[in-house]
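To assess whether the prediction recovers the assembly geometry, we first specified each molecular entity separately, as shown.
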Amino acid sequence: MSETIWLIPLIPLLSSVTLMLFGSRLKVSQIGILGVASVGIAALLTLLLAVEFMQNQQVIQLSLWTWMEVAGFAPGISFYFDGLTLVMMSVITGVGFLIHLFSTEFMEKDPSYARYFAYLNMFVAAMLVLVMADNLLLLYLGWEGVGVCSYLLVGFWYQHNANGHAARKAFIVTRIGDTAMALGLLLLFTQLGTLDIQTMVGEANRTWQVGATIPTIACLLLVCGAVGKSAQLPLHTWLPDAMAGPTPVSALIHAATMVTAGVYLIARTHGLFLLAPTAMTAVAIIGITTSLMAAFTALMQTDIKRILAYSTISQIGYMFLALGVGAWSAGIFHLMTHAFFKALLFLGSGAIIHCLHHEHNIFKMGGLRTRMPVTFWSFMIGSAALAALPMTSGFFSKDQILLQAYQLPDIGPGLWMAGLLGALLTAIYSFRLVFVVFFGKANTEPDKDTGWRMAVPLSVLCLLAMIGGWFMIPVSEVFPASDGSHPAHWVEYVSISVPIVGVLIAYLIFYSGRLNIDGLVSSTLGRRLGQFWLSGWGIDWFYDRLFVKPYYGLANVLKSEPIDAIYGLIVAINQTFNHWLSVAQSGRMRWYLASMVAGLILVITVAANLSVGVL
Amino acid sequence: MVMINLIVILLVGGLLAILSERISDTMPRKVAMAVVLVDVLYLLICLSGMPDIIHLQAPVANDPSSWLMHFKADWIPAFGISIELALDGISLLMVLLTLVLGAIAISASWTDIVARKGFFEANLLWSLAGVLGVFMSLDLMLFFLFWEVMLIPMYFMIAIWGHENRGYAAMKFFIFTQASGLLMLMSILALVAVNHGATGVWTFSYFDLLNTQMAEQTAHWIMLGFFIAFVVKLPGFPFHTWLPDAHTQAPTAGSVILAGILLKTGAYGLIRFAVPLFPEAALNFSYPAMWLGAAGVVYGAVLAFGQTDFKRLIAYSSVSHMGFVLLGIYAWNELALQGAVMQMVAHGFSTAALFMIAGSLQERLHTRDMREMSGLWQQMPRMGAVAMFFIVASLGLPGLGNFVAEFLVLLGLFQVNVLITVIAASGLITGAAYSLLLMQRSFHGKVNKKWADYGLSDFGPREMSTMAVMMIALILLGVYPQPVLDVAQPVLQSLLDLTTIPTLAVAEATP
Amino acid sequence: MDGLNIPLNHILLVSSLLFSIGMLGLMIRRNIIFILMSLEVMLNAAALAFVAAGAHWGQPDGQIVFMLILTVAAAEVAVGLGLVLQVQKRFKTLDMDHANRMQG
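The predicted structure of the complete assembly is given in tokenized form:
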């Protein structure tokens, strides 16, 4: 198995290429089978690999060929497989398979069915390359590859200009982070002479002191990349807009896999981050700030997908917090459980949107509990896990993160409290969603319930969201062990009870109506704050003024090519002379002759005068 | 003799193309295609006869016998002018690129050209002949001759078969290139005169001139002459303004040749002549040159973003991409130089393809204005997909040739100057901005009703196979660029050796 | 030949007078025929100067150049009259100012 690990990304890639080349000639059923089966086989192979890994715990390194070799710079097309890779691969292929299956029904009526699966398979291949790469340049290949696939899929319904705009925004904003990350790679290679992750980390530990400047800068540049890809402050603005894509795409790319690539990157290079405590603190602070900002924003949204998008940003903020406080395995654990329950929620919302004629506004839904039972239970379980109610998968992972954050000296308790506030908000907004959409009176009638191809993935993900917390992720060999100490018990009790309080608040406000907040909301301050949160803290507006408009303005000013004006000046001078001289060129013989005579007389006079002077 | 034959085949082929128009209207393009393919085959057959082609021996830059091929015959012995041609790894890459893109350009002209087909194909072939001469001649006078030979047919191609504003564009192109050509001629003559003063021998041979001793000031001015002449051609900021007009107005095949090949002669000239002939002067000048390169990267990208004309946008993207080449050359270390060479090859393909797409659109829609397009994917999905491919290639997606090039340039540059690297890297962001805008405005977006009943035909087999050649080339360059790197490596190494010796001596002299 | 010993200066004076008259004619006349005639006058003025100078120095060169000028004048008249016919045909006039197509 270890020798054929390269097959896992190759199969989806081949399927994608096949669909691109021959998609127009295949039947819908064939396209679906090809698209789903390729990821299915990849998932199966990953499962085999996992079974093998569980037995022998063997790290696999496989080098296919040297990508390029110039002056000692020799990154390879080579893969590295350990526990962390296994977790990521399982999430990508497993959740990916379920989402592909879901898509076959969701996208069935779309005329560009083949194109959809071509992109989606390509994404899976690129994402697998990202997590399997053994050097940062190959990782960067996957990194950019998923970016392009995300662009293509967000803008999948290209006929609407808004989708194209969202797609470009997604690509360009992440590209800003990517470029910083590329600079990080340049710095790392220049300093360490290799981009191979394992060698690089070893070399870094030999040559750099903890807290030195260069590792800090390098890590911060990598963080920029991670921040862009994982939609953290200040580069998070693309993710809510990216919801313009088909909902399964949001589930796969913008919830379960691609957006967690940043978390993976930092976890994978944790050896470097341990040398840069400043960078780690920055990661933690970015994480918690983003988490709170997004949670507040999610409270106010009315579009079901935007609520989930902000919740994704918020949850990835928790993962960043985990990474920042050195709770590596807790971060990855949360990544995995989040993939389960967030994919579940997105697919559930996809089912709702599918059955409600593309309705996105939650206040136009309502009462769907009885009409769409499968979806209802999916949402219940997903939201419970998202809110980290006890015994759900989200509980285990988020609890670990908060406890480890608490133990950090100095800022630890502060981070913990902020994290608790986030958890409270999470519980409120997720159950607000549940109560508004599934209870109360029905505003829109669904025309159907989900078919089996939608129901099966939802059910499996429900199961995973329930029991995912009991999985043991095999990363103990990858990350340094935590000291195993536990904070006081009251800390734990508080952590457990906060989400329950949140659910209660949501119940009181949005279901029973006991807690009336209308007065609060309609007060001047409430309205202002609500507006502020609804707009995502005005960050989009701010960026638009600060970057987008000036850039358009600059392009507009320069469009007419000011440099050419300099050459234009030369031309103008020449033309002036030309004009003067061509006046003389009148075509009248007599005029020519007269000027000749005049010139002659002039010359003779001057010459005579000069010669007189000389003589 | 092989090298002479390569050029003569093209020159004679041009005449044949003119004559063949009498047989039938479609004959010239077939003849032209056949001629180029014969040339490629001939070159490949000759190369396959050389056992060490794969493991190119490291040539000594100033010893012609160590090169892959070398040919020398007297021309005007009184002034030491000879017909001296030589081929090493970089020339070989460029010659191959020229011939392949030449074939692609002929394919692009297949239906695009309707009037005076014979003369068009002849001009195309003659221009190619000139370019081959530029890439192979190592006698400076011969080099200058070919430099002019490649431009004049190009002028005709723009002036006769160009679009609405062709007169202006052709004249601008001609004046810029002639002015820079004059500057180059003066620099060549000055260099030869200085060499004559030092050694008492008249010679125009590159190998003899390499070791010319001259005063620092003299070297600086002559180097500057070469630099400007080549940078105009590259084109580097701020000498680029001829390019958007020429590219936009030229017929598709002309744009392909212009962007794909002719620009590379400037870069080739810098690598081959401007730096090695005056190592110290050139390296002292490297910072201004790199700043110009970085300015070109950013400026080209911003201007591309502001365009509404499909071809003009691509033309400005060339300015941006060739900025990377300038950066790579003047960073002057192996990584950056390899990047520059890769960029020359990869940019040749990606831009040629984009120009072909632009040409196909113009042929179908009779406009290049992107405000009139939008939603074309609906009717032409194959063309849209192909355009998508080359657009992501040009924005530097890893796995395609352009990424390898840009990354190597940045990697080499980073070791020289961090600030310039950061500025150049911002070109990756702005590059994404204009590339995706191009896609959005033409193929994506709301379907424009205007074209609904226009009966737009998608790419046919001929176009798809031409595109496939370039796509495969870019993918190969992207995932396994090693053959190209291996061919260029010994040459670059020898050039680096050549230029570091004086600086080493200086370094030793000043403890 | 000694009875008629005219000083060289006088002849040159006549010659330059003739030349000036010719040039004046060239400048002020519009009719192409008169222009041609003025040209002839100028040519002959030059020829006269040559002959006089040749006689003065006792050299044959002056007369040789005179022959040359004579030939040139003949050729010029031939071409000139041809042009006159063409101008008449094309512009229906002999006024030179109507034939200023060269104007830039």
